[in-house]
């Protein structure tokens, strides 16, 4: 009986594989797109994907729910502990500081795991990758058959350019995986808020991109099987108060380099510091934020305890955010360790309205997810993890995921 069951499963997998060998998947990552942003905005193209395909309002990012961490989790299907991008800012003992000045698009910062396009290429399925971090490496060159120019993450080509390149890639039947990244709504929502007019405009713009992609796919010759998979790296939520770690340093007499991540922060204590004492001192703020020592993080924190991870991890919740001196009044920020001013305050700046980086069970951190195309059934998906996306895309292509991925393959099939 068991042998027969195995035979049936093998036959089904073979059939799925044979079908998938002709299939192309277009993967799109928007930045900072919470399903709450869809409220009150006309999005006919997203609506159609939801009506005809699989969709979810709960694509759950890995912690910390920040961009670089989750672009990499989305691409690789691995937890941050395995791919090495443990925060938007961190210190590597050999490579130095990974921050806004470092070239965060460079895949050479990763410590392990393949991106979905590396896995696809390795198994003989060429890929085209536009504007995504990790499409090139300063050590090993381009990571897919077709990429747009190597450059800093923020300095990317505009939508029309990468959509024209997508059309060209779709016209080439050898290209099996096409991946595109768009930096909005995040780029405007931090200042404009989750429901601001500029954020709404960005959602409309994203919907138009989806419409253009669908039109391109539908214009292909009969017999081309193209699926569209769309996600975002994290959501966004309203904030109003800043936790000034500089002030906490002077109040509680410790010295540390701080990696700010809005909803969380890592402290690299000065060598010789008493981490237990600092943790005890900061625990008096338990009503505002939690403090964890390296090696004692909660189960949902998959950043490991490697050399890139700080000695202390602080985690807060909305409306609080850990932010750097740029938010402080100049007379406070100018003083090296912010020796005056309250440790928790409301900044008077226009661009501090919405943030992310919080723990993954904060629903506002969850992102949109859609999958649509000939291989995909209409199905609401209650919840999926960011690590599930890459294995699922590779499965749609009939390929095997990187075996370091902890993610599961979602059943999207008809
Ligand atoms: Zn982001």
Concise overview:
By secondary structure, the chain is of the alpha/beta class. It has helices at about 1-20, 45-50, 65-75, 80-85, 115-120, 160-170, 185-190, 195-220, 245-250, 275-280, 330-335, 390-395; strands at about 25-30, 55-60, 90, 95-100, 125-130, 135, 140, 145, 175-185, 225-230, 235-240, 240-245, 255-260, 265-270, 290-295, 310-315, 320, 345, 355, 365-370, 380, 385. The model is unreliable at about 1-20 (pLDDT under 50).
What's the structural blueprint in terms of helices and strands?
Layout: H1 2-20, E1 23-31, H2 44-52, E2 54-60, H3 67-76, H4 80-83, E3 90-92, E4 96-98, H5 116-122, E5 127-130, E6 136-137, E7 141-142, E8 146-147, H6 159-171, E9 177-185, H7 186-192, H8 197-218, E10 225-232, E11 237-238, E12 241-243, H9 245-252, E13 256-261, E14 264-269, H10 275-282, E15 289-293, E16 312-316, E17 320-322, H11 330-333, E18 344-345, E19 354-355, E20 367-372, E21 379-380, E22 384-385, H12 389-396
Parallel strand pairs: 1-9, 1-10, 2-21, 2-22, 5-8, 5-9, 12-17
Antiparallel strand pairs: 2-20, 3-4, 6-7, 10-20, 11-19, 12-18, 13-14, 14-16, 15-16
This protein binds zinc ion.
Structural features, described:
It contains 12 helices and 22 strands. It is an alpha/beta fold and 414 residues long. It has 2 domains: 2-236 and 360-396, Alkaline Phosphatase, subunit A, CATH 3.40.720; 240-352, Gyrase A, domain 2, CATH 3.30.1360. Helix 6 packs parallel to helix 8 (197-218). The two termini are 26 Å apart. 50% of the residues are buried. Zinc ion binds at residues 31-32, 67, 186, 233-234.
């Amino acid at each position: 009986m068991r042998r027969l069951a195995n035979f049936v499963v093998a036959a089904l997998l073979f059939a799925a594989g044979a079908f998938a060998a002709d299939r192309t998947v277009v993967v799109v990552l928007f930045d900072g797109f919470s399903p709450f942003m869809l409220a009150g905005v006309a999005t006919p193209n997203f609506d159609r994907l939801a009506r005809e395909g699989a969709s979810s309002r709960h694509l759950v990012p890995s912690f910390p729910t920040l961009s670089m961490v989750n672009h990499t989790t989305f691409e690789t299907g691995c937890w941050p502990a395995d791919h090495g991008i443990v925060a938007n800012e961190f210190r590597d003992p050999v490579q130095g500081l990974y921050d806004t000045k470092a070239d965060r698009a460079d895949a050479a910062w990763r410590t392990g795991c393949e991106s979905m396009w590396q896995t696809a290429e390795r198994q003989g399925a060429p890929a085209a990758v536009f504007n995504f971090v990790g499409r090139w490496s300063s050590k090993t060159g381009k990571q897919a058959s077709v990429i747009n120019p190597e450059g800093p993450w923020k300095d990317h080509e505009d939508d029309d350019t990468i959509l024209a390149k997508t059309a060209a890639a779709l016209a080439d039947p050898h290209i099996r995986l096409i991946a595109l990244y768009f930096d909005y709504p995040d780029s405007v929502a931090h200042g404009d808020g989750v429901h601001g007019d500029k954020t709404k405009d960005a959602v409309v713009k994203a919907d138009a991109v989806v419409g253009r992609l669908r039109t391109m796919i539908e214009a292909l010759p009969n017999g081309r099987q193209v699926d569209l998979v769309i996600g975002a790296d994290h959501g966004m939520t309203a904030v109003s108060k800043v936790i000034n770690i500089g002030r906490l340093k002077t109040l509680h007499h410790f010295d540390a380099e701080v990696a700010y991540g809005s909803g969380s922060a890592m402290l690299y204590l000065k060598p010789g510091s008493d981490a237990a004492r600092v943790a005890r001192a900061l625990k008096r703020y338990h009503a505002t934020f939690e403090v964890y020592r390296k090696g004692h993080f909660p189960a949902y924190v998959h950043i490991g305890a490697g050399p890139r991870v700080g000695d202390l991890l602080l985690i807060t919740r909305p409306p609080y955010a850990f932010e750097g001196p740029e938010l402080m009044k100049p007379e406070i920020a100018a003083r090296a360790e912010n020796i005056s001013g309250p440790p928790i305050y409301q900044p008077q700046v226009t661009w501090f309205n919405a943030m992310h980086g919080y723990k993954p069970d904060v629903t506002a951190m969850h992102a949109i997810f859609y999958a649509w195309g000939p291989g995909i059934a209409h199905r609401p998906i209650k919840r999926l993890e960011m690590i599930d996306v890459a294995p699922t895309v590779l499965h749609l292509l009939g390929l095997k995921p990187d075996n370091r991925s902890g993610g599961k393959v979602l059943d999207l099939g008809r």
